[in-house]
Give the backbone structure.
Amino acid sequence: MPDKPREQRRFPRVPAEKALLVKKIGDETSESLAKTRTVGGGGCMFVHHEPLGVGAHIELLISLPGRVVKTQGRVVWEVATDPGRVEVGVEFLSISPKDRRALEKALTE
């Protein structure tokens, strides 16, 4: 029997529901609200009302207690689960060290 696949992520993701503002870079009209399902130091997954497009570059503002973390990322996968509901997996491309620490601290509390 084959072994269970190993976790390949450098930054493990944990279940976390955080409010988030999503902006497609280069399209200022695409601003919308969403909610994360999982978050880690290297990316997140959130539920959105429409596909953003695999490979799309986005800016995320993630709400944490007492602060907002800003990051830029790339959509790496999308799965439509229901009409008007798409799970979106994002890899963070740019996040300040201070924001990464705040995000990781919020996830361990």
